[in-house]
């Protein structure tokens, strides 16, 4: 029997839709995504529900793989808008006081020093609530915005990412705790013996250091990661504090959970120190029938097939414009498109058959079936979440919004009290940092030398 409590994370978008591409068409969606007050409002709502963390997804390009053009993304609202997350989190650092604040930054298109400084600064300004969602990016459109013709291969991206994390973690440790003295009388600002050069020279990166930001309240910001391939799982096992998964069913999730915990242990880390949280969607109603009606409207009726194909092309880095919607997904197609095999397997498991069309695949992705849907009253949704949490499938959930901010309003009003009543989730924040919320230790610095 578990004695810990689940983690709850809000999966955010700083743009025109939630993770569900049809959400902008929902009548209750607020189109305030270009206004700072919108993000502050959502942050305060999530704090009312005692969420551990809100983190923002990102892409560094408008979807433009489908047909070699961004026209479909713009026409159908397939996530054409993505704001700068450092600015959004700066707003939230000032307008919230407890919830963790996370952003997605790429190890392929940013530099380690830049990322280390950004998240160290956020950790100070938020008083210890920063998190970095590590990605290697997904497609050629992003590469072409950074002066490259094509995206790096899968294994090379992870080779770079491993070294990138080594450099960032090292830079965060270049200041020891207690380095700053602020002795006005003597003019002694900080102890040089507690500030270190990094001196990293590697295959992909060189960084002298020290970082220009002192050691942060958390020691190191929390690391999130969502690798699903074998290499991705190994990477997450080495680096992540919270692993974000996409398992559509509880049996698959249990297998993933067991495998990931074993991989974490194999690195020499304590498996209980890493939270594993699948992305999930809650559609809550005043009655079960009301919830099912909302599910049809929220998730099944609002997304256009062309928007679905546009986003599928972006995700797979493959132009699906060369196929008709009703073309079968063949073994040849599966073999030729990196990353598609797992999506097809999940879809086959969901529909209970082997025959899958391009339309099926696009709809499966667009209507959020790659993670569990929890549908029902607040009590029924809490029942489903409790089953996952107590049966070895997860340590919590990354909750995606069907529309914003109403989806989170419903969840906080109807589901969170049920989870709290059962002792599955906190009733108030007991610590001040994100590491406190997640039950994570503050890491010791790796660099020390005797003061001269």
Automatic annotation (TrEMBL):
InterPro entries: Diverse_substr_monoxygenases, Luciferase-like_dom, Luciferase-like_sf, NTA_MOA. FMN binds at residues 58, 104, 154, 158, 228-229. The keyword Flavoprotein applies. CDD domains: Nitrilotriacetate_monoxgenase. Keywords: Flavoprotein, FMN, Monooxygenase, Oxidoreductase. It holds the Pfam family Bac_luciferase. Residues 24-393 form the Luciferase-like domain. PANTHER family: ALKANESULFONATE MONOOXYGENASE-RELATED, C2H2 FINGER DOMAIN TRANSCRIPTION FACTOR (EUROFUNG)-RELATED. Belongs to the NtaA/SnaA/DszA monooxygenase family. This is Monooxygenase. It comes from Mycolicibacterium peregrinum.
């Amino acid at each position: 029997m578990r004695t810990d409590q689940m983690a709850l994370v809000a999966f955010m978008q700083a743009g025109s839709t939630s993770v569900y591409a049809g959400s902008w068409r929902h009548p209750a969606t607020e189109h305030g995504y270009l206004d700072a007050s919108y993000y502050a409002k959502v942050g305060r709502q999530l704090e009312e529900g005692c969420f551990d963390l809100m983190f923002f997804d990102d892409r560094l390009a408008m979807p433009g793989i489908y047909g070699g053009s961004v026209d479909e993304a713009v026409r159908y609202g397939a996530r054409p808008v993505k704001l700068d997350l450092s600015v959004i989190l700066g707003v939230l650092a000032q307008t919230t006081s407890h919830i963790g604040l996370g952003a997605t930054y790429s190890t392929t298109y940013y530099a380690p020093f830049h990322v280390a400084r950004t998240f160290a600064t956020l950790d100070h300004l938020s008083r210890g609530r920063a998190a970095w969602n590590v990605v290697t990016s997904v497609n050629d459109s992003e590469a072409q915005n950074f002066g490259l013709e094509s995206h790096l291969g899968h294994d090379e991206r992870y080779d770079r990412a491993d070294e990138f994390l080594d450099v960032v973690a090292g830079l965060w440790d270049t200041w020891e705790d207690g380095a700053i003295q602020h002795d006005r009388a003597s003019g002694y600002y900080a102890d040089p013996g507690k500030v270190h050069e990094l001196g990293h020279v590697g295959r992909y990166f060189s960084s002298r250091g020290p970082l220009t930001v002192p050691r942060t309240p958390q020691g190191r910001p929390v690391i999130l990661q969502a690798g699903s391939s074998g290499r991705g799982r190994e990477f997450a096992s080495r680096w992540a504090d919270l692993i974000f998964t996409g398992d559509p069913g509880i049996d698959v999730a249990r297998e993933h959970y067991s495998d990931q915990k074993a991989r974490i242990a194999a690195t020499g880390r304590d498996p209980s120190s890493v939270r594993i949280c699948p992305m999930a969607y809650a559609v809550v109603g005043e009655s079960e029938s009301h919830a099912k009606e909302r599910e049809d409207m929220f998730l099944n009726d609002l997304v256009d097939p062309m928007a679905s194909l546009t986003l599928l092309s972006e995700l797979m880095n493959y132009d699906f414009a060369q196929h008709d919607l009703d073309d079968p997904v063949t073994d040849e197609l599966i073999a030729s498109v990196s990353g598609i095999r797992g999506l097809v397997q999940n879809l086959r498991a969901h529909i209970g058959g082997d025959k899958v069309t391009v339309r099926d695949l696009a709809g499966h992705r667009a209507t959020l079936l790659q993670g569990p849907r929890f549908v029902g009253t607040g009590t029924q949704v809490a029942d489903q979440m409790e089953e996952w949490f107590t049966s070895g499938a997860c340590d919590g959930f990354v909750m995606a919004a069907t529309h914003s901010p109403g989806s989170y309003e419903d969840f906080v009003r109807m589901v969170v009290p049920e989870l709290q009543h059962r002792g599955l989730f906190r009733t108030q924040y007991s610590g001040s940092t994100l590491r406190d919320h997640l039950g994570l230790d503050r890491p010791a610095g790796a660099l020390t030398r005797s003061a001269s």
